[in-house]
Amino acid sequence: MIQNKKISLVIPCRNEAKSIASLLKKIPRFIDEVIVVDNRSTDDTYTIAKSYGARVLKENRLDGFGIGYGYALRRGMAAAKGDIIVSLDGDGTYPVNQIGRAISFMIKKNLSLVIGNRFPINNQAISFLRQYGVWILNQEASIFYGYEFKDILSGMWLINRSLLRQLNLKQGGWNLSPEIKLACLQASRKGIGQFHIDHYYRDFGASKQKIWQTGVNHLVYIFLRWLTVDQPLTSLAQTWLSRINLRLARALVTYHSLRREL
Ligand SMILES: Nc1nc2c(ncn2[C@@H]2O[C@H](COP(=O)(O)OP(=O)(O)OP(=O)(O)O)[C@@H](O)[C@H]2O)c(=O)[nH]1
Ligand SMILES: [Mg+2]
Questions:
Q1: Are 12 and 39 in contact (CB under 8 A)?
Q2: Ligand 1 pocket test: which of 22, 89, 157, 202 has the largest number of ligand atoms within 8 Å of its C-beta?
Q3: Which run of H or E residues covers position 70?
Q4: Three-state SS for 226?
Q5: CB 214, CB 174: distance < 8 Å
Q6: Which ligand places an atom closest to the C-alpha of 12?
Q7: pLDDT by residue (tens digit) across 142-172?
């Protein structure tokens, strides 16, 4: 609990048996609830997380690329009871010890979403290629959405539960990460803040990331989302279409009533 706000932490995990214990040991006391969402792990992630007192949910769904990151996060966030829901990866690369400061920042500025921003990076914990990829996606999102994203792919964010309930999140794979930020932006532009965080090397376990595949997938997702969901012209076109339909319907009714009068 911080300033009367209940805090939930949601951690998506797949085969993180080697890192989850050291992460769970570091969870600060003000976190009221820890939810680990395990997605088809073949190692001891489930048992270890449970033994450290986390509530562990099992999620089986995977997207077309065999990733269940988004499904797991959506499941965990939906189950969370906190007023503020914090999410971060289970591989120990995000700073558990900076959650408290990020929450204070969120409350003080009255924000609904805080994105943990890893850039400029304080060490070389992310390869140059990945940093450049994130930069390109930041630029893309900023051009289309008019908001200067610093880290559109950050795996750490804090969200107000009432804002979360308004979002219609659909992504099951890696795209949940840009989706949640863009959906929040559309719902509450003034309610978004970015908070600089540290980022660490992955100590154990293999990366599940296929960076070229994921990168292109994000690039296409951001553009298509803008074009088909968020772009103002889309809603304008919908309004015009419904007006045209209405007029066509009226024309038919008038035609029939005039014919009857003849
Ligand atoms: N529940 C669930 N979690 C996943 C899945 N894939 C990855 N994760 C978790 O999502 C978080 C981020 O995955 P990572 O593999 O660290 O991806 P990354 O941070 O982009 O890349 P690396 O740190 O280099 O591996 C970690 O906690 C993973 O365990 C999945 O299919 N289901
Ligand atoms: Mg990672």
A1: yes
A2: 89
A3: helix 69-79
A4: helix
A5: yes
A6: 1
A7: 999 999 999 999 999 999 999 999 999 999 9
